[in-house]
Write a structure and sequence with these properties.
By secondary structure, the protein is α/β, with parallel strands linked by helices. The protein is about 30% helix and about 15% strand. It has a five-stranded parallel beta sheet, with helices on both faces. A five-stranded mixed beta sheet has the order 10-9-8-11-12. Helix 1 links the parallel strand 3 and strand 4. The longest helix is centred in the middle third of the chain and has 18 residues. It comes from Kineococcus endophyticus.
């Protein structure tokens, strides 16, 4: 098997940068394919896009500035290497740290901290830097005065900000690169975010290593793998076009019949429909971490994966809340442990 990815691969040359990451993508750039037990053989067969949409990005080598980056809301010229970057959207802190950088400011999400615990655990040597990251409010309502006070030279945000006045306000503060967002588009998000930072080739190297490692996992025949989450009153199964589903796709793993959908990220299920979560291996997360919120459901014990001891509770933050490369590494490690 290919050696495990070393997160320190990207620390060092980029460690002096202060910035954060964002999400990117364009709907409909890569046609969806039905889930199967074998990995696709062509780039167009992947449900999760692996490249930027045509014409996006800067086309510049790493470290070349100024660079004009085409993104989800137009184009932005970044005049010099960013040294004070803020991130507004899901997964951007993860992407930045994976590339060896720490933001000067970041927002928090619904149920997620400004710096998720899994990132603190993965980057213990950056603890002091992470403690210094300024609080910029929430992802849906960033504190614009706090953003301006940081005097950033690059802002990263995803396309949801285009629905209100937030994007225009951010663009008035500093050069702003806008990604598409969603777990389906996390690889495009990583590449576009990295392009704004002048680190796109570095991000591509990370993705190439990830894809090679995932492909080395694929057993034949593939067991089915299932992803299930409870947050509040909602219980959902996650399909192929989801963040955790994308990592299973990278590894060529089959999904149960009820999770082969590609038209949405997840589907709500009732306790009576919990059989849609059954598979050879079941990975489940609970927001807040209390497994009893799922395991106490009356139909939980009826699942074959539960009866055979093949239902594993996972880090909800990494599997279902954040859509960055380090989270993807955690998902892949869980798959390796269960299937290796």
């Amino acid at each position: 098997m290919i050696p495990r990815l070393d997160r320190r691969l990207f620390l060092g040359a980029g460690a002096g940068l202060l910035l954060t990451g964002c999400s990117t993508a364009s709907a409909g750039d890569t046609p969806a394919a039905p889930a199967t037990s074998s990995a696709p053989t062509t780039a167009s067969a992947w449900v999760t896009p692996r490249e930027l949409p045509a014409g996006w990005g800067s086309g510049q080598d790493d470290g070349v500035f100024p660079r004009t980056v085409v993104h989800a809301a137009g184009s932005t010229t970044v005049p010099a290497r960013p040294t004070r970057v803020v991130v507004v959207s899901t997964g951007q802190m993860d992407a930045a740290l994976t590339l060896g950088v720490v933001p000067v400011g970041a927002t928090a999400g619904d149920g997620a901290g400004r710096v998720p615990d899994y990132l603190r655990a993965r980057f213990p040597d950056r603890s002091a830097d992470l403690d210094a990251v300024a609080d910029l409010g929430t992802r849906t309502q960033p504190n614009l005065e706090a953003v301006a006070a940081l005097a950033p030279d690059l802002v990263l945000v995803n396309a949801s900000a285009k629905d209100g006045d937030v994007l225009g306000a951010l663009q008035a503060i500093a050069p702003t690169v806008v990604t598409q967002g969603t777990g389906l588009r996390w690889k495009q998000d990583l590449l576009l975010l990295a392009d704004g930072l002048g680190l796109r080739q570095r991000a591509q190297t990370w993705l190439d290593e990830h894809h090679a490692r995932a492909a080395a996992l694929a057993p034949s025949p593939s067991p089915t793998v299932s992803f299930l989450r409870r947050n509040g009153d909602r219980v959902r199964v996650f399909g192929v076009a989801s963040f955790s589903g994308s990592v299973a796709e990278d590894a060529g793993l089959a999904r149960p019949q009820g999770q082969r959908f590609t038209d949405e990220t997840s589907r709500d299920v009732s306790a009576e429909q919990l059989d849609l979560a059954d598979a050879d291996r079941l990975f489940f997360g609970v927001q807040g971490g209390d497994a009893a919120e799922l395991t106490s459901l009356p139909t939980w014990g009826d699942l074959g994966a539960v009866r055979t001891g093949r239902a594993v509770q996972v880090d909800d933050d990494a599997f279902f809340l954040n859509t960055g490369p380090t989270a993807a590494q955690i998902v892949l490690e869980e798959l390796e442990r269960a299937l290796g």
